[in-house]
Amino acid sequence: MTDLDRLRGDWETWRHDREAQMTGPRSPLAFVWGAHVTEPDTAVPPAPGRWAPLGEARGLRVTAAADEGIRIDDRLVDGEAELYWLALDGPTRAEFSDGSEGVVFSYDGTKFALQVWNAEADRMRRFDHIATFAYGAQWVVPARITEPREGRTVAISHFRDPHPVEVPVVAEIVLTIDERYYILQATEHEGTLTIPFRDDTNGASSYGAGRVLELPLSGPDAVKVGDVAFVDLNRARLLPCAFSPAWNCPLPPSDNVLPIAIDAGEKWPMDAAGQPLDPE
After folding, report:
1. Span 226-234, mean pLDDT?
2. Mean pLDDT of the chain, nearest integer
3. What does the CA dihedral 193, 181, 177, 268 come to, rounded to 10 degrees?
4. Closest CA to 265 of 119, 122, 133
5. What is d(CA 219, CA 234) in angstroms, rounded to the nearest whole number?
6. Tens-digit pLDDT profile for residues 44-84
7. What does DSSP say about strands 75-76 and 153-158: parallel, antiparallel, or unpaired?
8. In this structure, are residues 213 and 195 in contact, taking their beta carbons and an 8 Å threshold?
9. Each residue of 89-123: pLDDT tens digit?
10. Closest Cα partner for 33 from 17, 22, 18, 47?
11. How far is CA 182 from the centre of its chain?
């Protein structure tokens, strides 16, 4: 088996895993809405009830009448109940009468959001597959992973929030494509170098907001600052907001806009008629 055969096989496995991810109850397509709850008596449509932070505890309190149909721990809520971020603190899943469910989410364990998921959401029902560019060996490109200057940050905006947030850059990825150099800024998220980017395919032959590359920082394919590695652009994946407009996903910064077309990786989520699932 050649290296190209192995890479193509790894890509096929990656594609299969991505398709499988779209069918579960936590598919990106099933995400209906999410909102931070920082004040008492907060509504989080389409979830019923009124929600409030639990103070020092890691979760949320809901107040609802029985006819609103919220169940937590198989108990119908009629008054107040608590929902937690972590199972060690208490129940972590609320069931709603329309078949959706609510869970508590937090980035840092200090500020909590209610997320609403529905495995029967419209986009779940309409979804058929993820369209991709054909695998191309020319998109397995050499890259130098270099250390950024001290204190380097990059301005990241989000899908539903135009105000950019300065995020630390942990590495610069210097790609060589057709004998030209392109530099992308990488941040860190959950043990990976995360590289959201835009290119000339966005809005034409791929989803308009951009795509993302992820390089692992641990495991057999781990990379680190100082490495020279091959980056497989065929694994460029769609941002979560391509699957549901409920996602407030980070958008590629201006530093990561490539002036060329990257005809590799994922293009669109598609319906059975072969049409893209455009944001609603």
Report:
1. 94
2. 94
3. 50
4. 133
5. 20
6. 999 999 999 998 889 999 999 999 999 999 999 999 999 99
7. unpaired
8. yes
9. 999 999 999 999 999 999 888 999 999 999 999 99
10. 47
11. 24
Tokens of 172: 């610069």
Token pair, residue 256, equals 């990561």
Q: What is the pLDDT of residues 18-44, one digit of tens each?
A: 999 999 889 999 999 999 999 999 999
* 29 φ/ψ angles, rounded to the nearest 5 degrees: -75, -20
Paired strand residues for 102: 94, 116
